[in-house]
Model the fold of this input.
Amino acid sequence: MALKPTIFRVQVALADSDRGCFETLSLTLAQHPSETRERLLVRLLVFCLNQAPGLSFTRGLSSGDEPDIWRHGDSGELEQWLEVGQPEEARLRKACGRARQVGVYAFGAGATTWWQQQGPAICRLPRLAVWQFDWREVTAAAAGLQRTARLSLSVVGGVLYLDNGDAACSLEPRELYRAD
Done:
């Protein structure tokens, strides 16, 4: 019998002063059995950083043809494709052909090596931006994530300040590449 996902219900008080986005989000995330808590946290943060009407989580790890998060326009066109992790150049090339805007949020102990190996090819792609989260910051933040949570997330000057009521931490994703 297949393992079922673990469901997380998270309320986020989002105050993104960099984008002028101030909202309260009620999110339900399904953690795939093979997904780590750190990856789940990064998916949540990426969703908040890109909050816009029409943004939604996809089947993620359960589907090879979909990103982790995407946004469709009113007429159904794919506006935004957001990947979490360390995707290969071929996957990103396909995404750049389908979506108007593609974003990658790399994290993990091997993210720097991934960028050294894949970066030169990735940097030739249009409509793409790549960021990297520091692995130590992600593990510290993920330690405080509960299945039912109320979080406060403030974004100021590119720094994310995350507070769960018991503990607070900061994360600073570093931009690696942005297509002109």
Notes: The chain has a mean pLDDT of 94.
